[in-house]
Amino acid sequence: MHSSRAAAALLAAALxxxxxxxxxASSPTSPTTPTPTPTPNVRTVNVQGAVFYDxxxxxxxxxxxxxxxxxxxxxxxxRTTTTDAAGRFSFDAPEGAQQAxxxxxxxxxxxxxxxxxxxxxxxxxxxxxxxxxLRGGRPNVxxxxxxxxxxxxxxxxxxxxxPWIQDLLRGYWGRASVVNEGIGGTRSDRGAExxxxxxxxxxxxxxLILYGTNDWNSSSCRDAFPCYTIDSLRFMIGAVQxxxxxxxxxxxxPVNPTVLDREPENRNAWVSRMNDxxxxxxxxxxxxxxDIHAAMMAQPSxxxxxxxxxxxxxxxxxxxxxxxxxxxxxxxxxxxTAGGN
Length: 341
Known about the structure:
Blueprint: H1 2-18, E1 44-53, E2 73-76, E3 79-82, E4 88-94, E5 96-102, E6 116-120, E7 126-130, E8 141-146, H2 148-151, H3 162-173, E9 177-182, H4 188-202, E10 206-210, H5 219-223, H6 229-243, E11 246-250, H7 264-285, E12 288-290, H8 292-297, H9 314-329
């Protein structure tokens, strides 16, 4: 009798265990190792080419289009490279039908690009166009617009930063013509009055605005800060943009701090306060900022940049020219449009 009951109990326990009963947790199931998906063998081919300034927007390289675009990021089939100083690139990209384009954040402000379908390999160079939309301006023409610092007073040749920036732009892009529209002694309100005529006459692609130095000489600007300076600069930016050109605005340069009888401390404090308003205004208006004040202040010796109390010498004009170049060519991803340095 007892042996029959024991056998029945053993049998029930075995059946319960087999069904996962008994109140205990079921035995864990060993994970199944997925079968790895074979990685496709992507074949690549070498792609060589250049990025050029498509001046007429036709999408094809014409004989007169001599500007090549350095320091741009080229993307093909998910792979990228950067154009060299001559605007050329060479790298391996996946074979077959691909989209070739320029990464927009690597473009300077104002420039545009569209993707191009390509089938790799190619027979010859891949030429990728970029455009600078201009309604009335002439490609590769730059206009300096300002007072005696734009005019070039204090430089050996009397041309100021003009030869420097023209040589720098030609070295960077291959072509540039710079027109000097500086008039000595003028204030920013006078600049606002005359900028329309200057733009219509020169028809520039870029306008380099450097005004405000002489505004200090107006008692209203010292006593009723910021007087008309910010509004005048904003008007100039609007006139350039309405014409369809690119506005680049320079901060007001400092004055020579060693000429003590000219109140350099008070004047430089005024200049700094005004520049603190110019920087955000340029951001708001969508123009490009060339922080000339910061570039000059960053030099080892500020007095060494001056010919007199107010006007730069050759070294000072070179600093100004290099800051114009930095602002014009900086990639939009660097934050140049948002106030520069």
